Amino acid sequence: MSKMRRSERIVRLTQILLEQPHRVLSLTEMADKLSSAKSSLSEDLAIIREVMESEGLGTLETQAGAAGGVRYVPGFRKELGLQYIQQISEILGSGERILPGGFLYMSDVLGDPILLDTAGKMFAARFKESGADYVVTVETKGIPIAVAAARYLSVPMVVVRRDHKVTEGSSVSINYVSGSRRIQTMSLSRRSLPEKSKVLIVDDFMKAGGTVKALIDLMKEFQVEVVGTGIFMSTEEPQEKMISGYVSLATLREVDEQARQVEIVPGTYFNEEE
């Protein structure tokens, strides 16, 4: 392989790091792959780290020693997050999205890979120190957001089912009362989560918090620790939720069916300074 120019090497290094967040990558292996000296890579990585930190995109953590290694830790600058929520507000703020009963049509947003990718980065940045071994969600609309978060945390995703599937093997099922006051069931295969694991719960929408509370209760049956709860959008009412300590990217403040108006504001994600 011909020797790369420095500009080419930096681009390739950046690509490798972004594709494998939270994974410790060997400097020796990367030096061999890029036909470069480790000292040159170290200089390149310093440049990449400086740009990432200045742009609020995360940082690089290095490990000293003979083996040596580096990993990309995603970050997300607060003002970029606020711009993202403003974009979401503009997309979902149309009165045409209001459905009978005061519900809000969001399926297209939850299917947009670019919008989902940003949500995943934001959750990964907030929960990067949580130590989560898995991201857990309940089918179906929460799955794309959970996939995005798991991708940037570099951990597996586990889907809790609404009913038992024969292909899941032996399962644990619980009944719970949803926000619409209906009794529902959720089920999870016993093979899905090892005991003593740490999990991050991610869901698309939360009103009173009945579904998320049921997920937390189900996790207790597996003897795993819930280290965080990330919600794409929560409602302002009721103010008293069934859970506490959740992190929402956006808050649905009002859906006025008569005036055909929707108000969406930044969620609890922005309550604390980064």
Brief write-up:
The protein is built from 7 helices and 13 strands.
Overview of the molecule:
The chain has 274 residues and is an alpha/beta fold. It folds into two domains: 6-74, Orthogonal Bundle (Arc Repressor Mutant, subunit A), CATH 1.10.10.10; 78-270, 3-Layer(aba) Sandwich (Rossmann fold), CATH 3.40.50. Helices cover 33% and strands 28% of the residues. The chain has seven helices and 13 strands. It has helices spanning 6-19, 27-34, 38-54, 78-92, 113-126, 143-153, 210-221, and strands at 25-26, 58-63, 69-74, 98-99, 103-104, 134-138, 157-160, 171-177, 183-189, 198-206, 225-235, 247-256, 261-266. The strands form four sheets. Strands 7-6-10-11-12-13 form a six-stranded mixed beta sheet, sandwiched between helices. Helix 7 links the parallel strand 10 and strand 11 (225-235). Helix 1 (6-19) packs across helix 3 and helix 5 packs across helix 6. The longest helix is centred in the first third of the chain and has 17 residues, at 38-54. The chain is globular, with a radius of gyration of 21 Å. The model has no long low-confidence stretch (mean pLDDT 91).
